[in-house]
Design goal:
mainly beta; Deoxyuridine 5'-Triphosphate Nucleotidohydrolase, Chain A; four-stranded antiparallel beta sheet; 3 helices; about 10% helix
Length: about 140
Amino acid sequence: MLDSLRTGEIKLEPSDLSSCLNPAGYDLRCSKTVVLKPKQYELVATLETVELGLNVAAFLHIRSSLAREGVIGSFAVVDPGFRGQLTLNIHNVSEKEITLKEGERIVQIVFHSLGSAAKKGYNGSYQNSKGIVSSRRNKQ
């Protein structure tokens, strides 16, 4: 992964390699403080803007410390060629209110090198996303 960061195949801005880089990926952070009410979900934007080259795809996983408190997430694959902030669908299935603080590490992004470059990069509705982006499913 470090090689891909050095070559620009993966870009994360702003990045904090000293506290967010881990053996299997990178921990993305919450862009602003969000209060998750019991049994409710919120859309949460990552602090980082992610940009992937055509040789890389990525998958997201909730951090285990949050999962142990009753936080789960529903995430899409990050396709080759995507760039923008990620909007995360985060659910609080517990009976207590949970606060995600600005800058808190909330999901791990795990990068996968493809066997060959994608012929065409992502160019969908969420390309160049900034902040929280609601569903555009019925707006196409």
